[in-house]
């Protein structure tokens, strides 16, 4: 025994040293931020975010990161459920039971013990210290409770106490406490903001920088100011058709905008959004400086993203209840050990891939409930792709709502309302038409406002007979994706696949008779 004791001591010390050297995770998530607000995605943007730019320069920028969609107007809710659980859109719970997704309370699709397999629970079990600060509501409450330290509150004001600085202070205080107690455990910090989600009450000095005011009078227009951001190139005074949810709160009731889409209103609201986003950048910088002073920065994987994108005038829309790229895509930047500085990735990823990936990066086994794919090989330069096809859904309004599918340069979006007869299809070549410009963008009065003259082929190609074969291919691909993701709805021109309507809903909400096999979710499709 006297020879065994030193061996055990050395073994324990080795394990302790190994645990202490494991990389930390700082996961930063904004609320309602389009990637095209940032210079790293749109060099013409007037938004200044030097700390986010520095993360991009020192890490990897993803050009095809997406959120999968939503079955409710509060797109934040399913998005954050997917981030926390690593599961696909139709395999997550809702805040209520039965939920707004017809499958959300069905244990065949959603494990009853899922909270025990979410982000914080997994990292707690692996010996990490876990901390969270974010907005309250429209989130996965049962998963949020798994964090050891939680400081959640809605902070959308224009002061340090009522705005984004409050969230940063929670992280800074937590790191100071660790420093004071010589805590050497690796940590996972979920650093969330309540902005730039409306109401976008920015700090006065930042509002002034972007020529914006916190407009409160529904019966007047905000003042024009040359310092305000210009209109987006895909701005429209109105969306050309009912997209199945045009009366949702974001399109009708955002303070400062309401239902207006005129130039002065949109440019002022963009200025407010930019003021809030620059403040987020300032707070990110404070936390990065703290990590640097603690000697933890180089051993920390830092992710910067948003729960979804945002319209704010693009395509005549204001909110996040659509599947255009400004909303379907999200900003996504990763810096950390082994990631080539200044690199960019074209790999298609979902936000739901985050949990599997950070487990992979830290040597933790991802829970069996995860349906995402690890993009660690992309971060390390060993692979250029994760999946070939992306699927998106939105049905928070009329059913079946909107669906999209992307493959290569091509994207299809379908719309259908069972209530008013809306049936629309859009086909885009994103290589030639990255802003998804429509026929309405070619109108002279729109060109005068955006100062952008579209090329003839920068339009919806769905009715062009030259692209009939591509349209059919994408229609078939969409149906395949709807089936493989257990989408419980179908469009009227698709086979109904023996879907049935559950009892207890006022509107038709079909559900599948049998769940598909889980392994098909993890395929490259």
TrEMBL record:
Residues 486-525 are annotated as: Disordered. Residues 23-364 form the Sulfatase N-terminal domain. Residues 515-525 have a biased composition (Basic residues). Residues 1-19 form the signal peptide. Keywords: Hydrolase, Signal. It holds the Pfam family Sulfatase. This is Arylsulfatase.
